Amino acid sequence: MDDRPRYIALLAAVLVVAVTTAGCVGMPASGPPYDTPIDAQTIASDHQAALDEAGSYTITANTSVSLGGANSAGESTVVARIDETNQRANFSTTTAFGPISVYVDDDTLYQRIGDTDAQYQVQQRSVNVSSIGSPDVAGTVSNYSFVANGSTTLNGDTVWRYEANATGENASLPQNIGQTFGASTVDVTLYVRQDGLVVRQVTNTTIVDDSDQQLGSWRSTITYSEVGSTTVEEPDWLSEARNATTG
After folding, report:
1. Chain centroid to CA 89: how far?
2. Higher pLDDT, 19 or 118
């Protein structure tokens, strides 16, 4: 049985991580938007409200695992362009199955798998593009104790840096990459705009084996860009997808 449709459904439902531009130190317009400890539900609500008000945005998500000094477990990048106003979204990534693209338009989800001899799937279902695109801000904040550490400039916006560090029993892998792996340290940095938008979320994890010997590292970066100016156009393969799944 072909597992590719199941893989794509997971890809469309879970957005996994890329650093776009490095910020330079900037002067804050006012104090940090949140006192610490940060209330998880408050920042998650403010984050989503800022996205809803903007109406559109692009998420670049990059995840990499390095074991034994090399990227032996690989690296993945997902780019998601979200247009909440028109309920459209476009996701793209490259996997072991080749390039994968997902286009959402109202209640229809189109999938293109591969490049040459591409396969298509069309699903009629209710899709909320904002819920597909946004990572779990509340879950991240509630799992760690953050402290404010100054401001910087990112994508032209002044943002506040919140940092957290977990070690020993308080450290855990952000996602399951194997039952024989664990984490000895986890560092998380949030770059938060004054209105609560988490413009960037960076997680660095030291991977250890079951005897606490260091094996490598896990890194995840989620960046929001083109907030309020992202456009989602119909992909050039849309007619092929429609033709391949009708008749």
Report:
1. 14
2. 118
DSSP string, 84-118: TTTTEEEEEEEETTEEEEEEEETTEEEEEE-STT-
pLDDT band at 25 (very low <50, low <70, confident <90, very high): very low
Q: What is the pLDDT of residue 247?
A: 52
If DSSP codes are grouped into helix, strand and coil, which group holds residue 138? helix
Name the amino acid, one letter, at 17.
V
Position 90 scores a pLDDT of 94
SS3 40: helix
How would you list the strands of the sheet with 214-225, edge to edge?
119-124, 108-113, 98-105, 88-95, 75-83, 56-67, 214-225, 198-208, 182-193, 157-167, 147-154
First to last CA, the chain: 23
Per-residue pLDDT at 55 exceeds 50: yes
Domains of the chain: 4-244 (2.50.20.20)
The β-bridge partners of 26 are none
Q: How much is the pTM?
A: 0.81
